[in-house]
Amino acid sequence: MSIIIRRASEKDIPRTLELIQELAVYEREPDAVVVDVEELIKDGFGDNPAYGLFVAETENGIVGIALYYFRYSTWNGKVMYLEDLIVTESERGNGYGRKLLNAILEEADKLNCRLTTWQVLDWNEPSIEFYKAIGADLDEGWINCTVKQDQYKRIYQ
C-alpha cells in the first residue's frame, strides 16, 4: 500500500482528533481529551499557529499524524518538540510511524533545530523499542511537571 506524508490542512482535523482520542484510549486516559475540532483548527491554522502537523495518508485515508511545536532551550537554542506520533492501531507495523518521524526530523533539520525531543510512557515497550532502534537517547533522569488551568489562580494569587 502506498503512503503519502504531507502537511495537514484544516480538512484533516476531524480525523486528527479521532486519532488523538484513539491515543488517549491507548494511553489509558480515555476521558482526558478536551480539545475539539474548532480549537485545533484555530490553534493550528490561525495567524500564529501553535503547532505544525504532518499526516500519513493511504488509499484508506489518514492513518497517522505527527504533531509538533517549538520550544527554546537556554543551552541549545531552538528545539522541535514532537507532541504526538500516532498511527492507528490497525496500521501499526507498516513503517508509517518511521516515515512520520523522518518528516519531523527533516523539518527540524531544515529549520535549524538543534534538538528534537519527545516523551514516551515507561510502559509503552513497542514505542521504546522503536525509539531505541533508531538511536534516540532515552533520558530517564527527568520528571515531568504540570500545572493545570484550574490550578493557576490558586498558585499565583
Class by helix and strand content? alpha+beta
In CATH terms, the superfamily is Gcn5-related N-acetyltransferase (GNAT)
Overall mean pLDDT:
95
**Strand proportion:** 15-25%
Net shape: globular
Measured as a percent range, the helix fraction is 25-40%
Layout of secondary structure:
Layout: E1 4-7, H1 13-26, H2 37-45, E2 52-58, E3 61-73, E4 77-87, H3 96-110, E5 115-117, H4 125-133, H5 152-156
Parallel strand pairs: 4-5
Antiparallel strand pairs: 1-2, 2-3, 3-4
InterPro entries: Acyl_CoA_acyltransferase (IPR016181), Diverse_Substrate_AcTransf (IPR051016), GNAT_dom (IPR000182)
Keywords: Acyltransferase, Transferase
Pfam families: Acetyltransf_1
